[in-house]
Structures
1.
Amino acid sequence: MKLPDAWQTKLALCSLLSTVLLGLAGCGGSSSSSTPTTPTTPVNNTQAIEVNLGPANNYPNGVFTNVTVCVPGTSTCQTIPNVLVDSGSEGLRLLSSEVTLSLPAITDNSSNALQECTGFADGSYVWGPVVSADIKLAGETASSVPVQLIDSLDPTTYAVPQACTSGGGSDENTVEALGANGILGVGVFQQDCGNDCTSASSSPLPWYYLCPNGVCSAATVPLQYQLQNPVWMFPQDNNGVLISLPSISADGAVSASGSLIFGIGTQSDNALGNAQIYTTDSSGNFHSIYNNVDYSNSFIDSGSNGIFFLDSATLGIPDCTNNPGWYCPSSTQSYTVTNKGLNGTSNPVTFNIANADALFAGNNGLNAAFNNLGGDSGTSPSTDYVDYGVPFFFGRNVFIGIENEPAPNNAAVGPYWAY
Amino acid sequence: MKIFLVVFAVLFLISTPGWAVLGEYENSVPSDQQRMHAQLRQVAGQGYTVSQLRSTNGQEVREYVSPAGLVFGVAWQGPTMPDLRQLLGSYFPQLQQAAQSPRRRRGGPLVVKNKDFILVSGGHMRSFHGFAYVPSLLPANVPAEVVK
């Protein structure tokens, strides 16, 4: 099923809902000109973030922020707290249970509402409709952005397609399961799926769906109706993101406050400084070299709550007994890995891995932020990546360069990482 | 005998619409190919063969087959997760049990190290990759590391 020209945000429905349910007249202007402008007065580009255990008290090293969503073109808005900041995905996904606004559906010209299945590497998934919203972060606004509402009904409005559950994991459609009220994907791409979901030449990926007569089938979707990394849709400060988290104690901390800063080299607060640029391949990966082995699908992911690196047999340290999946060395270990971008930039990075059982038990179990939490990424030597999660971010400025967007002084074009 | 074999093969093609399945005899590569709209490439390794299916939408699956035709390992990469229910067959419940158990590990790769079932699933949006194998089904002198 492919309907490349037929997509529309349902502005008629938007008017109706606004008028009938919210008592407001219409949805207002829907134009979203993306002409770059240089404002004479810089807008506030700094969004507060905090590392804590999250709204369900179950997400160690979760990076959370507030996100304001509005009915497009109106001042009818809602601020959702405790949204996970994820550099490993693109687009805003919010639990429908936390959203009280009526946001207009994105439909095809047969009024079939677009649905999305978002799968994650750990086998879990979220499922629900794609709607349109203005997204406000700090002083920045992205207008009429496709956003996924994670269907938290039981049963869901449309039954979850079998292909969506084939990763084996849970439907993360509650605060408890997701560990957050939503996910703000600010990775290196403009859209979540990109061209792999637009192709009319093959069977559609099991990602976007249409459900005529209640039967859901995978569908191809033009880029502009896919979920968007909101940052590249800002009128300014739109070439990337800086995530800045402070240094913390090796014993961990109850919380850590930092900043999500929009733009790279666009204002006085987001200059690259000494950061080196590591461009990625078309899938967002770079090379990590350890003990002369090249792990060529490595990445940086603020949604991963540890550094996931090789396995216990290769590193010679034990897995934990109380906390499966984490490393428990008897004393803290230091590792140096060389990261190499596709542009040839190559530098060593050093991180520590401490005993996770001790970290989680410390401070009566109250600590949430850890800079030395590590776990396995596979079974060596078959693993092909290092997953640099939240511990990597502490005490660093990590820049995310969005695809097709230039770095300062045209030093590179995204996708890239810089730190 | 010849007729019998042909009928047998046709029956298999009809009854196994999915991938070749981990722990079962490879008999459905042609239908996998059709289902994935994929190009098939078969590569001989030392003591095993690899059937590599690559679809036009970027999904790739590799099936590791013993000389006797048994699928002892599978591996994948692509913009989304593959259909692991079909790929893993009777081993899928072991993945479900591991993936759905509560844990402090969040948002990263999944590693399952059961007695006779190993699975690694990692990556991020647009770049998922992983593998699974059954240690007891590895052909003689074939190390587990070939499955990747």
2.
Amino acid sequence: MESRLVRRDTDPVPFAPDTVIAAFKTIPDLLAHDADLTVRGRWLDVDCLLGPSTQPFHVAIRAGQIVDMTPAPVLMRTWQFAYRATPAALAAHWQQMPPAGWHDLLALTKRGQATLEGDLHPFMTHLQYFKDLLALPRRSGFGGAS
Amino acid sequence: MNGFIEPIVGRYVHVEINGEINRIYFEENGSGIPLVCLHTAGSDARQWRHLLTDPEFTRHFRVVAFDMPWHGKSNPPDSQYGTEYRLTTASYTATIRAFCNALKLERPVVMGCSIGGRIVLNLAIEHAREFRALIGLEAADFQQPWYDTAWLNRPDVHGGEVCAALVSGLIAPNGPEASRNETLWGYKQGGPGIFKGDLYFYRVDGDLRGRTSDIDVNQCPLYLLTGEYDFSCTPEDTLRTAAGIPGAKATVMERLGHFPMSENPEQFRRYIAPVLQDILDKQNY
């Protein structure tokens, strides 16, 4: 089924909501093929909630590897921290040349397009790891037509 | 090229600041109008190495870049070890003026980036007559905080890693990878709590809102240049500041972020060259 591109006036790039979720689902595989990024997370064990605000995922990370990723909600599943961004923000973030102000996880929180909640310690101790992890779909060519 | 020696010369000058001698490391190259360069918070003067070796600029300018006390190769003052470092508007201004006086620089141009850009505005407010021109990169009278600086200095978070990771997003995407890495390396090497201490000036003490309208560019020309990808000091912050200073020249730089001189020196050169030429033209007028 072909996804339909949509763009509201406030969206920086046109995108199909389905493709944002689909792209997010590729992150575990992209990480598995990135030995350097995995190594940088080798001290990291955390259960967190990540992804599009419309469909976040429970992500279990052990020694820098994603060992489980399950769509939320899961009954009584806990998480230590959550980073959720609007689908429009992720679509912009994953452009080959992201528009200014949409190019960094904390740029998105500053502009109110993403939320960061919970116990931030694992996020901050591995900040570059999470920035690179959540940017992986850019590398695989998501929405190169910005 | 193997064996190539850059023309930059690094030395130490003893500078009395607030009654105490500080051993300040500085690098310089070129001759002509003194051009003093101020590094960003939490980093050091290595950020300016491309400007320092630019053959065209150094033909007309004596480019001087110094490490602030507590940064790079400028140690903390002897009496201050063990205290909590906090940069203030007054101490930053005093340091710059003392450094310029120690080197006997005659009406230098001062160019600063980030906190250096902010303090340039204060120099324009309080000491305009001492300077030939002032250039603020990523400069504004104020900008909205976007993270809690408490994360920058605590025993359970690696200071170098978190400082570099925080500012990494301020670099424009798709610039030269080596330049990006070098820019971040400076942040990974900062002393404990120094980035945080610099941000005390930026966040708490150095709010210049309501004061920049006192700037008279007829006494000292003011140029403000900000990268479009800087979401800390945004182009809107700079343009708002410039709008309140009659005669200030503001430019938004494409494909650049918060560290224009070090993250993408070639791209920065396109924007700074006309500014330096304008300053030169004013001297020859």
